Amino acid sequence: MNIFLSNQVLIFLFSETVLYLLALIAFVGTLQILKLWDFQATTPRQYALEKRAFLIVTMIQLILWFKILLLPYFAYTIDKLSLLIPGAMCGAGVIAANPYGNPLLLLKILLLFGIGIWLIVDREDQKAPDYPFFKTKFRFYLLLFVLLTTEYILDIVYFSHISTSDVVQCCSAIFGISGSNRIPFNLNTTSLVAIFYLLYLLTVLLALQRRPWLLFIVSLLFLYFGYQSVVHFFGTYIYQLPTHKCPFCMLQKEYWYVGYLLWSLLFGGVFFGIANAALSVMIHKTSLRLYRLAILFNTFFVILCTAYVLFYLIQNGVWL
Amino acid sequence: MIEVKNLTKIFNEGSEATFHALKNISFTIRDNELVLLKGVSGSGKSTLLAIIASLLKPSSGDVVVEGRHVAKLPDLHASKFRATTIGFIFQSFNLLDHLSVSENIAVPLIPMKLPKTELIRRVEHAMELANISHKRDTTAKNLSGGEKQRCAIARALVNTPKVILCDEPTANLDLDNAHAFVEVIRRLKQEGYTILIATHDTIFDTLQEVDRTIAIENGEILQ
């Protein structure tokens, strides 16, 4: 069977194509605006540019919000493809079906953070009457467009190189005891979980102290150790099986789709944690609200992870 | 103060229906001036008022009202500017028929989220200025033309604007009500407002408080 006959893949690629075409139009408009923009001028060209800029900004907003929505849909798509690909039990096998899957997933997460930063800069720009961050946000869009182009190419290459006849590895082979994704730095589970909680406390502390750069570094560490902790420890309580280690199976119905919530909270918390450092470089401003959101998202993430462990312990009286 | 500099407005630019509504217009209105903008229908008066009120963007040129370059304001800020600086009195009143006079007048204050006592105080003051207090509970649809106009005046005044713009304010009024409107304008001038009235009604010609008249024809100011 051709992978392009899957409904989810067709919808996903069609959406990506439409968004990419809009992004391309916005890119051309952005180049014109950056070249000709002179806010002090009262010429017909400048007034026409201001009108066009409004349109371009609206287009970029639309594209970026849809890109955010498309990430969980991408996860849903690859999860559904596991039914078509021999050997795959969940999205883990599908993502590892060729060498393009993991770089694509990483790029999508990176883009998500970039998109979030752009939307915040845009919001700050629109708060003022004189477009103070206008050129900054359009220059940043040029970088985003390069990433969007790379992502679109990778989307096509990735899906077109998925074979429905070759057997892929399932998640237990990839993340299990025999797999290559062991706990990093030779840590044991206890140390990993201790680092996880320690980093969480540090993110809260640094957010309360409003230290953007330290929070940036700790948030990235929290992303890495949060991911590892979910795969190697908390995930086993979600699956209620000590040998089941997978970041993708929790996206399935059997686990109440909790993976979507769990990963959204982690990515959200990390994004809000790193956003202030990026904003301080780009627009020389930080936002108290972002610090608060970082605390909120990280706290809900930690509560959700911990709740699975505690409920298992209360119900069964033993640790996994 | 209102400064209009080299203002041009072209509608349907680049098409066969291109229309030059305003052609390189410049003038200044100082604080507390009462200025009449006179011209026949289609001469560009309403377009000029709409640009000064930041309801419309020019094709070129600049408009500075109370130190703000209103033609350059993004839409969100243009709305805030209108809410705080401009009182606009329309020819067709634009009242909400199902609301009472006091409710109509209070509408522009809703986004400001004022305390209720302050909101009531401002509405009362505006009704008093426009001489419509006695109709406070009457719904707009039950008002006469003159009363509707006074309600519209009160609504334009309630946000304590610095500038009042009137677009053909007496066009829908009979002679008595037009005279009553002129009286209200006289009072507003004494209160210190800057007023620009676009009209072709001769009733304002006898108003002694008028500081200047700007004549406009085919989008150009006549010297």
Please render the helix and strand layout as text.
The complex is a heterodimer of chains A (320) and B (223).
Chain A lengths: L6 H30 L7 H38 L9 H5 L5 H27 L6 H27 L10 H5 L13 H20 L3 H28 L18 H25 L5 H29 L4
Chain B lengths: L1 E10 L7 E11 L4 E5 L6 H8 L7 E6 L2 E2 L5 H11 E4 L11 H6 L9 H14 L15 H13 L5 E5 L7 H17 L2 E6 L12 E6 L2 E2 L2
Parallel strand pairs in B: 3-8, 3-9, 6-7, 7-8
Antiparallel strand pairs in B: 1-2, 1-4, 4-5, 9-10
Structural commentary:
The complex is a heterodimer of chains A (320) and B (223). Chain A is mostly helical and 320 residues long. Chain A has helices spanning 7-36, 44-81, 91-95, 101-127, 134-160, 171-175, 189-208, 212-239, 258-282, 288-316. The radius of gyration of chain A is 22 Å and the shape is flat. Chain A starts with 6 loop residues before the first helix and ends with a helix. Chain B has helices at 45-52, 75-85, 101-106, 116-129, 145-157, 175-191, and strands at residues 2-11, 19-29, 34-38, 60-65, 68-69, 86-89, 163-167, 194-199, 212-217, 220-221. Chain B is built from 6 helices and 10 strands. In chain B, 43% of the residues are buried. The chains are: A mainly alpha (320), B alpha/beta (223). The interface between A and B is medium-sized, with 12 and 17 residues.
